[in-house]
Specification:
The chain contains 21 helices and six strands. It is an alpha+beta fold and 449 residues long. The chain has two domains: 2-264 and 403-442, 2-methylcitrate dehydratase PrpD (Orthogonal Bundle), CATH 1.10.4100; 269-391, 2-methylcitrate dehydratase PrpD (60s Ribosomal Protein L30, Chain: A, 2-Layer Sandwich). Helix 2 (20-40) packs across helix 4 and helix 8 runs parallel beside helix 10 (198-218).
Amino acid sequence: MISETFSAYAVNERNSAIQPEVLHAAKRCFIDWFSTTTAGGVKMPAIGFQAAFAEDMDRGTARIIPTGRTATMRTATLINAAASHTVEFDDVFGPAAYHPGTPTTSTAFSVADHLGADGLTFMRAIIIGYEISTRIAEAMGRPHYDYWHTTATNGSYGSLFSAGTLLELNKDQFVNGLGSAGTMAAGLQQAFREDCHGKPIHGAHAAGVGLMAAQLAKNGVTGAKKILDGPVGFGMAMSSEVDWAKSTEGLGVSYNITRITVKNHGCCGHAFPAIDAALTIQKKYNVSCEDVVSVKIGMAKSTVAICGGKSHQTFFEGQFSLAFVVATAFVKGRVRLDAFEPEALSDPIISSLAKKCEVYIDDQVEEAFPLKRMAHLTVKLRSGDVIDFMQKTRKGAPDDPMSDEELEDKYFELVSPEIDPDIAQKLLDDIWRIEKCDNIQDLYFARNR
């Protein structure tokens, strides 16, 4: 029974030594999570969550990012998870099109805050949550992603196992928690095919579901033991031909947290290879935006379905428009969060170039997805020359990773508008040595602006 295998792993891993490269990867994920959560924490829907759950605010010991305002453990989990997934800058496990940091780290942070857990235990909770949820997500495969938002569904398992590690669930309790989390796993892609707050709400839902499942299991509430591999369980109901045996290969030896993609652009990750292709073409061939007559953007079927629209009237539409972000890359040489401010969205030069971009499904790119994130750009120039370019990965992916220095640059870019620079620097230094931290509450970050 797959639930027992994952649960036994979680209990055993709690007492295992953390490999240095795995601990370093977990620190990187925490830094990245804090960055994106800070940027999203001052926007909707995080602001709306605080108003909606006002009765739970300013009590409890779990902190809201970036203000440091306290709330109950559950409410802080919901708010921080929604914030983490708001600006589309959170990490990705590419083979599953899954954002593990949003549900996993949001839950781990609130529970660790509530318990006063030490830094190493906190890191271990993140590692275990990432490992199991990414394996389940990858096993569910492309059929699951046709309709379901992987972060909303599989994220519940990341949350469960991170919370359960901190709450010290035993094997049977983990099995029961899996049963509860699995039956509540939900989140339809329609929520991000429209301009609404549904996508970050999915992150909050997954985190809340996992935390609740862990708390219930800790207190004797039982769940379906075959929720994953049962005849009408998660695999059968929400995917097809799931190979659960393969999902446990190398468990406890090979760690997916070392293979996480750190986002290098401030938009939907599906668009990244196309942005990287535009930037490479611009540099390699000395192409300016004025040189471009037309751009054909060949992507995977899922990417075209999610990011194929040309409208970019709002922050959301801009982040999910391949035409707009590729045009922005050619014009500005970068695509960060300022690319979706009102002035940038209405920039006549970018808008004009976006109209010259055509998105289509490329067979080679489609065949490689999601294990490889590629883009096929065909750029026609005023000179009559045509540049045919295949981008075979995306910056930030395991085969083209961001360095620690680049990650730190991203951190300061996202937190500096909200947190005093000296405080931000001290926090970063403390995270890099978090294994020496006796209490997560000692990590200070309260907004000072």
